[in-house]
Amino acid sequence: MTRCNPYGYATDAGPKHLMGGFYGPEYAGDQTVLKDGIHGPAICTEAAVARMRMVCEIGHTGPIMDLCARHVRELTARMSDTCTRCVWPDQARGVNDAMDRVMKQMADARDRQDAVTLRTLGARLDDLRHEMDGLRDRGVIRKVPLRLVEVS
Ligand SMILES: [Zn+2]
Ligand SMILES: [Zn+2]
To answer: Ligand 2 centroid vs 61 CA: distance in angstroms?
Structure first.
């Protein structure tokens, strides 16, 4: 029998391919967190009943997943979610990376109790947030719903 593998862990993939490659490890929640608090392998113990994959309307697909009935239901319930590849075009990724960098620098500045730098960085972060909103307003960041489709 094939075991249910909703997270792609046993494949080449790892957390990067969580939920068919459309979700980061932060979406796994407690399902992938071991007792020690470190992300562990999220392996479902049920037998798979279906081969399915996530597809967005412009044709992005995730890897094929073998799923048990419960995970088919669970992933179907997430249909309101959006294709992260459509949501994260390169442009948005660049802004997001910049935000990450600024936030890291802010943490450092906080450690040093450097209020001046912190304020400057805070303003920069606001700018980046606005830039991100702008991308959303202009439709560069698109929210494209995903469908879970059966693969034969
Ligand atoms: Zn399962
Ligand atoms: Zn897409």
So the answer is: 8
Decide which of 51 and 11 is more confident.
Answer: 51
Q: What is the pLDDT of residues 50-101, one digit of tens each?
A: 998 888 888 888 778 889 998 888 888 766 567 877 877 888 888 989 999 9
Q: Mention every residue, 6+ apart, whose C-beta is less than 8 A from residue 17.
A: 7, 8, 11, 62, 63
All structural domains of the chain with their residue ranges: 15-82+144-150, 87-137
- Cβ burial, residue 101 (10 Å; 0-12/13-18/19+): middle
Q: From the CA of 36, how far away is ligand 1's center (Å)?
A: 23
pLDDT in tens, 110-130: 999 999 999 999 999 999 999
Measured between alpha carbons, how far is 48 from 46 in angstroms, rounded to an integer? 6
Ligand 2 centroid – CA 41 distance (Å): 26
- Among candidate residues 60, 117, 109, the one with its CA nearest the CA of residue 83: 60
Q: Percent of the chain at pLDDT above 70?
A: 72
